[in-house]
Design goal:
The structure is a homodimer of 299-residue chains.
Chain A: H1 12-18, E1 28-40, E2 52-60, E3 70-71, E4 74-76, H2 83-95, E5 101-108, E6 119-128, E7 144-160, E8 164-176, E9 181-193, E10 196-207, H3 213-230, H4 244-255, H5 261-268, E11 272-278, E12 288-292
Chain A binds a DNA duplex (27 and 27 nucleotides) through residues 46-49, 243-245, 260-263, 265-267, 280-288.
Chain lengths: 299, 299
DNA sequence: ATAATAGTGTCTTTCAGACAGTATAGT
DNA sequence: ACTATACTGTCTGAAAGACACTATTAT
C-alpha cells in the first residue's frame, strides 16, 4: 500500500515529507473539564441527616478575556497528547486525583466562542468522590472553587407549526458558594419540521460565567441526569461504604426531585452489596452500610 | 468588565491586540461524516417484499495517506466556519441535500490518527431518506460509493478480577458493494475496577478502511442502534409515505434482529398517522400507508 | 386455491409509581 | 415517650414480550 503513488507521482514517504500542515489556518483546541462532586451540608440538628449538594469546580479567570469571571477548568491540547490525555492532565492538575471516572461529552465549535482566536473545545465530565478530595483544589494557586450548582427548568413554550412544532425551554443555571454567586439562562430550542429535528442551545443571559461555559454546564447536567438513570456512574460520587439513604440523596440532588424510598431501593438493589457494618451515633436508628457491586448491566 | 486590566497592566483591547495564537503548535481539525441510508434490495419474486439494507457512504482515497483505501467523507474545518457548518458543508458536497438530520457523535483525538500531521476529528452522523437521493453521490468526481454495512458481535469475553471485571467484545464490521469488500475488527474493552469504569476502543484488523475510521463507524452504529429505541430518528430514513412493515424493516436492519409485528406496531403507534392511501400491485394484500406524526416524545 | 403479506386480540411477565406499615437507636 | 430515620410489603397500572388468530389481494 505504501508503495502506491498519487497523481503527482509521489509515494507515501515522499508525500509525507512534502506535506506542509502550516499552509492552512488551524483553530486552537482546548479541553474543558466538568468536575462534579456531591458534598454534605452542615447538619441542622443532632437528629437530622446532613443534606447533600451537587458541586462543580470552577476557576476564576486571572487574565483576559473574561477576566474576573468564572470558567471551567481546562486548557490547550498539546501537540503530542491525545484529547483524553489532555483531559486527564487537567483533571490531575486541578484535583490531584488520577484514577477517576471521565467521559467525553461534546465538542463546541462556534467561530466566536473566544475573543482571542478560533478555539474549539471538547468538554469532558468527571465525577469525584468528595471524601477523596479533602481540601485540595480549594487552596490552589489559581482561584479554583467549588460551586453549588442548580439547573432548573423555569419556562416551557410550545408552538405548533404547519408541519411540526417549535419547543422552547429556558433553564436557569445558578452557581454559588460563600463568596460568589453567578448565574445564567440557557435557551434550548427544539424544532421539528417535517421529519427534520434540530436542537439549538443559546445563552440568553450570563452573569459571571465566562465564555459559553453556561451552555456547556447545562449540557453536562442534562447528560448527567439522563445517564444516572440507566448506568452506575452515580457510584463514582460515593465513598467506599455508604448507606442507601445517602445513595438516594445523591440521585435526588442530581435529578432535583424526590424519590420514593421503597422504589429507589428496588431499582438499585442489584448494584449494591450489603456489608455487616452500620452507621453510629446518628441520633436515630442506625443504617446498614453498603458497597458498590461491579457487575454487567444487562450486557 | 472590559476595562479591567491584567497583571501585565493590559486592558482587554490591548491584550487581544497583542495575542499571538501562532505561538503554539495547533492540531488540525476535521469533521468526518457518517451518512446512513436504507435502500431496497431487488425483489426475489413477484410476491415477496424487497429486503432492506443499511448503507453508508464512503470515499475512495485518491491521495496519500491510505491511498486506495476507503474513508468517511469529511474534510478540514475552515477557520471561519463552526463545526456544525463544516459538517453541513461536507454533507451538501457529498449528497447535495440541505435540510437533513445531523447529530454530532464524538471527537477522536489520538495523536497518531493520521500520518500527515496531528489531526483531531469530530464525527457527525446523518440519516438520509434514500428516495430523496437518486443517483447523486454515486457518480461524483471523487469515488464516493454506498456500502452495505453490517456490524456483528462475534466474540465476548468476561474476566472477573479482584475488584471488578474486564469485559471484552469483538465486533466484525463488514462493508460491501458490487465491486468492493472491506472489513475490520474492532475490540471494545470495558474495565471496571472498584468504582472506576473505563471503555477503550481499538482496531484489531482493518482491510481497506482508512485511518481509524473502522472505530468511528462501529461507534456510530452502536449509537444509532441505541438511539432508535427511544427517539424518532428512524423516520429520517423513511420517505413521506411508508407502510408499517417498511418501518419495521428499517428498525430490523439497524438493530440486526427480528421484531414481533404486533409489539412493534404498538410501540411506534404514537409516532405515525394513518393516511387513506394503500400500496398497489404487491402480489398480496395491499398495505395502508402512514406518515410521520411529529409530536413531543414525553417531554 | 394459494402464497405471501396485512392487521388485530390477548395472555403473561416485568417494571415503575404510590402508599402504608413496622422497626429501632438516641435523647 | 418521642423524634427522625431505617426498612419492608403490597396494590396498581403501564409497558414489553410472546403468540395465535383473521383478512385480503394478485396470480
Amino acid at each position: 500500500m505504501d508503495k502506491m503513488i498519487n497523481k503527482q507521482g509521489l509515494n507515501e514517504e515522499q508525500f509525507l515529507a512534502a506535506y506542509d500542515a502550516s499552509k492552512y489556518d488551524r483553530p486552537s483546541v482546548t479541553v474543558d473539564m466538568l468536575i462534579f462532586t456531591v458534598t454534605n451540608e452542615e447538619k441542622k440538628n443532632y437528629r437530622k441527616l446532613p443534606e447533600k449538594v451537587l458541586r462543580l469546580l470552577m476557576i476564576k479567570r486571572g487574565d483576559h478575556p473574561c477576566i474576573g469571571q468564572w470558567a471551567l477548568p481546562g486548557g490547550f491540547v498539546e501537540i503530542d497528547e491525545s484529547l483524553d490525555e489532555a483531559a486527564l492532565r487537567e483533571l490531575k492538575e486541578e484535583t490531584n486525583i488520577d484514577n477517576i471516572y471521565m467521559e467525553q461529552l461534546y465538542s463546541w465549535g462556534d467561530v466566536d466562542r473566544d475573543l482571542r482566536t478560533r478555539i474549539i473545545s471538547t468538554s469532558y465530565m468527571s465525577l469525584v468522590d468528595s471524601s477523596s478530595l479533602d481540601v485540595k483544589a480549594s487552596d490552589d494557586a489559581d482561584d479554583a472553587k467549588w460551586f453549588t450548582v442548580s439547573c432548573k427548568l423555569y419556562q416551557e413554550h410550545k408552538t405548533v407549526t404547519e408541519k411540526g412544532y417549535i419547543f422552547e425551554r429556558l433553564y436557569k443555571l445558578s452557581l454559588s458558594n460563600q463568596e460568589d454567586e453567578i448565574s445564567a439562562v440557557v435557551k434550548i430550542v427544539k424544532s421539528v419540521e417535517g421529519k427534520i429535528t434540530k436542537i439549538q442551545r443559546e445563552i440568553i443571559e450570563s452573569n459571571g460565567i465566562a465564555f459559553d461555559h453556561a451552555k456547556i454546564i447545562q449540557y453536562a447536567i442534562e447528560r448527567l441526569r439522563n445517564k444516572i438513570g440507566y448506568t452506575d456512574i452515580a457510584f463514582n460520587l460515593m465513598s467506599e461504604l455508604f448507606t442507601l439513604t445517602e445513595l438516594q440523596q445523591v440521585y435526588e440532588v442530581i435529578l432535583d426531585k424526590e424519590l420514593l424510598k421503597a422504589n429507589f431501593r428496588r431499582k438499585i438493589s442489584d448494584m449494591v452489596i450489603e456489608t455487616n457494618e452500620y452507621t453510629k451515633d446518628a441520633g436515630h436508628r442506625p443504617s446498614k452500610l453498603f458497597k458498590f457491586n461491579p457487575q454487567l448491566l444487562g450486557e
